[in-house]
Amino acid sequence: MIAIWNRKEIMVTDNMERLAKARYALQGAGIQYSLITKNLSAVNRSAPPIAQGSHHNDAMYYLYVHKKDEDMALHVIQEAIRSF
To answer: How many domains does the chain fold into?
Structure first.
């Protein structure tokens, strides 16, 4: 478990594909992480769609790692997202 005072936020996204790539990369590198999901459906319920067929996501994902792993985690995630 990563304590609040020892963690760094390394990614905030509403894109499940990017999140999956980041999580897979962190697991592959042996970096422990924690994930917080915030449900935005109550906030977005009254918002009109911007364009026909626009993607409307009801969740925001926050990815955290231990402070000591921040640099390595950012590098691993950038490489994983770039290579796909």
So the answer is: 1
Percent of the chain with pLDDT over 70: 80
Judged against a pLDDT cut of 90, whether residue 46 lies above it is answered with: no
Residue 37 located in a structural domain: yes
The pTM (predicted TM-score) of the whole model is 0.79
| Residue of 76, 67, 4 lying closest to 36 (CA atoms) | 4
> Which among 62, 7, 64, 10 is positioned nearest to 39, based on CA atoms?
62
For the purposes of burial, counting CB atoms within 10 Å of the CB of 48, is it exposed (0-12), middle (13-18) or buried (19 or more)?
exposed
Q: What residues contact 45, with CB distance under 8 A and at least 6 apart? A: none
11 strand-pairing partners: 63
Helix (DSSP H) and strand (DSSP E) numbers for the chain: 3, 3
